[in-house]
Amino acid sequence: MTTTTTDKPSFVYVLYIATTAEKLWEALTRGDFTEKYWGGRRVESTWQPGAPIVYRYDEGRKTDITGEVLRCEAPTLLSYTFGVDHGEATEPASRVTFELKPLGAMVRLTLTHDQFPADSKVLQGVSRGWPGILSNLKSYLELGKPLPFGNWDRATA
Fold it and tell me: How would residue 156 be classed by pLDDT, with cut points 50, 70 and 90?
């Protein structure tokens, strides 16, 4: 869901995953997990506030998302800047925040992607990309395998 608060648009997505907060945390912060549900992208970071964060793909040869860790409170809160290193790279970095709340046998995951400039092209891209990535994450954690990866991130409604 894309929302606008004052003049700063944001994207918020909530889903429930049958897993533990610890397992979901690993899936968000370990490259061997992210590459399975995020189109082959491996996340790299020490997860210390101020540390760099990089998403690499194509067997580690290319980088398309970079940022800096803002907050890391395992296993409940993760926030980092999100700079896109292709097409829309002229925009300043936005911010991604994952909030994990255990609810019995499941976890409510709330993704808030905000701090976009007005008329952001990156916001348009993440509004299409995040639902597919997070659906793939849910399938991977609950079923042990991701959805068939293809052009779902390029599909239009």
Answer: very low
